[in-house]
Amino acid sequence: MRWSYAGLTGIRLSYDDSPSPAVTASLLRLRDRLHTKYPKGLTDCVLGYRTLTLFFDPAALSRETLLAAIEALDDDLDAMSDFRQDSGQAVELPVWYAEESGQDLPAVAERSGLSVDAVIALHSSISYTAYATGFAPGFCYLGEVSEQLEMPRLRTPRRAVPPGSVAIADRQTAVYPSLSPGGWHLLGRCPLSLFDLEKSPPGLITVGDQVSFRPISRDEFLSLGGTL
What we know:
The chain is α+β, with helices and mostly antiparallel strands. Helices cover 23% and strands 29% of the residues. It has helices at residues 21-37, 63-76, 105-112, 116-123, 218-223, and strands at residues 2-5, 10-14, 42-47, 51-56, 90-97, 128-133, 140-143, 158-161, 165-169, 172-175, 180-182, 185-189, 210-215. The strands form three sheets. The protein has a seven-stranded mixed beta barrel with strand order 5-12-9-10-7-6-13. Strand 9 (165-169) and strand 10 (172-175) form a beta hairpin. It is elongated and about 55 Å long. Residues 79-84 have low confidence and may be disordered.
């Protein structure tokens, strides 16, 4: 693990390994142990695919003290055998897969050499790890999709992707929480709200969660609050 400065009151920790559930688990483990050790000194912790950025209050916690604690905990991570890589919450999202709700579904099927039903079955058969949040509030990058469904991003992003759109790009999948531009391939739509400031936490998915997709019908999509 390497570290670098992140402003005057921040430290960014980075793994050289490729993103994986094991890397995410290790970062979460380190974050939780440090937050427990310094509940007042740490002001924020931001997780990325292979990074953990820690922000601290210099009046309560010095950079040197924090770095020493990180080094000690990093050496001890492998010994924490009681920590499960799938310790995040299990989140199941209902999805109406159809060309009406996911306009790229036929194109994805054609490119992958699969039928539309096979694409739906393959995409919904995997439990995905939430690796990182970003792009928009509530947007969480999930991985990894099957190699058969690996798709390059669109050359020209759409100006407006409907909220709840379930999409794939490269080996990732995600749900757009709100109306926004986007360059991913759309497969369907989820009727659930992915981000709500009135709730705590506001995001339905957090880093480390295990996310699965459950195919539903058009009628069930509408009955769950989905809109066309």
